Amino acid sequence: MTEADVPAVSAIRVTGWKAAYVGMVPQSFLDGMTVEADIQQRRQHFKRSKGGVTNLVAVDTHGRVAGWACLGPFRGTGTSPNTGELCALYVQPSLTGAGIGRTLLETVQALAHAYGFDLVLLWVLTDNTRAHRFYERAGYVADGAVQAEDYDGVSVPEVRYQRAL
What we know:
- With 165 residues, the chain is an alpha+beta fold.
- The chain contains 5 helices and 6 strands; from the N terminus they run H-H-H-E-E-E-H-E-H-E-E.
- Strand 3, helix 4 and strand 4 form a beta-alpha-beta unit.
- The relative contact order is 0.15.
């Protein structure tokens, strides 16, 4: 990913949230999301993520960004330094099911292994059954850890998945 990819990544992230998280995240939060605001946020994250974080994009046959994934060291505590985290994986909603997410995930896993990670963790909204199925088919298992994020004053629970490399 380059800084020039940020607008396309933001568009995928925002449309992805609005398509995937209806009924899971407060509608007020989803309605308040804009590509423009996300572009500013992504640019800040991109500038800060130079050390240890890898952002990947998948492009279609026309060179347009079709998906995005972000890998870095696990941001939580209580794990070994050899633990990576899939921080984000989004695909343009109109292309869901085309294999882009699977390809990005396989690439992330290969990079994680090359970086010396022996375990990859990720968080999934508890109610996101589609994501649960996707990661479970790829060999990830829920490890019992839970957390919640606050969206417009509503606590939204997440479960953690892991996969040994």
